[in-house]
Design brief:
Layout lengths: L4 E5 L4 H12 L3 E6 L2 H13 L3 E6 L9 H10 L5 E4 L14 H26 L6 E5 L12 H21 L5 E7 L2 E2 L1 H6 L9 E2 H12 L10 E3 L6
Parallel strand pairs: 1-2, 1-4, 2-3, 4-5, 5-6, 6-9, 7-8
Length: about 240
């Protein structure tokens, strides 16, 4: 498949980093988007050292106009965007009675609001591709209830609902929209939230990246529903 241009939101670490490295290794030009320039630049250095091509765009997508610089660049270079991968997110483990209004709004905005900002700004560049994909990272918590993560679950369930609706909306244009719902993944976010978590219950970020690559390279006109990906030992 001829996947030439990919935007990875949340590319500075974890699943976003793994997806960026894989796509660059496969020959795509990768646009690295995230809140922390130092992390993005470290990924860019890895890509460059391996002979790949990438561009860094520091952006906080909780802000409406965060992608203005990227949009201007894509316009100026007349880029047809083949895939948008949204990996940005923040976990929060808190019982509801100690979850504040500010906590809830922050988690919804970071995990779901940023999905709107990225897709709303970049959809027209995807329309120029010969096989466009929008791949949104949700979570298994969107598909099954777990205690102590009500705000995070609401946000990730929102991502699934957003993907389902957008997939129907864009079906006439044959733009693939997929929500990928992994169980626990070996990422910095996982270990920051649960440092004592069992290693037997996680999958690698590279495994998730391989699934992202597979979905993005399906033949045009082939779609998926949400995809669950997890350790066989995870409930």
């Amino acid at each position: 498949m001829n996947l030439e241009n990919a935007v990875i939101v949340g590319a500075g670490q974890g699943m976003g980093r793994a997806a960026a490295l894989l796509m660059a290794a496969q020959g795509a030009t990768v646009y690295l988007v995230g809140r922390t320039e130092a992390k993005l630049q470290a990924v860019a250095d890895e890509i460059a050292a391996a002979g790949g091509r990438c561009h860094v765009f520091e952006a906080d997508l909780t802000q409406e106009h965060a992608l203005d610089a990227l949009v201007a660049y894509l316009d100026a270079e007349q880029v047809a965007l083949d895939v948008l991968v949204h990996c940005a997110g923040e976990a929060m483990i808190k019982p509801l009675d100690v979850t504040t209004f500010a906590d809830f709004n922050r988690i919804i905005n970071i995990n779901l609001g940023t999905v709107f900002v990225s897709t709303h700004n970049l959809l027209r560049f995807l329309r120029a591709s010969s096989n466009p994909s929008i791949i949104l990272l949700s979570s298994k918590v969107a598909l099954r209830g777990y205690g102590g993560v009500a705000a995070y679950s609401a946000a990730k369930a929102g991502v699934v609902g957003f993907a389902r609706s957008l997939a129907v909306e864009l079906r006439p244009e044959r733009i693939r929209v997929t929500a990928l719902c992994p169980g626990p993944v070996d990422t910095p976010m996982r270990w920051a939230a649960t440092p004592d978590y069992s290693r037997n219950l996680v999958i690698s970020a590279e495994t998730v990246a391989e699934m992202i690559w597979h979905v993005a390279n399906l033949p045009r006109g082939t779609m998926t529903g949400e995809i669950l990906l997890q350790s066989e030992q995870y409930d």
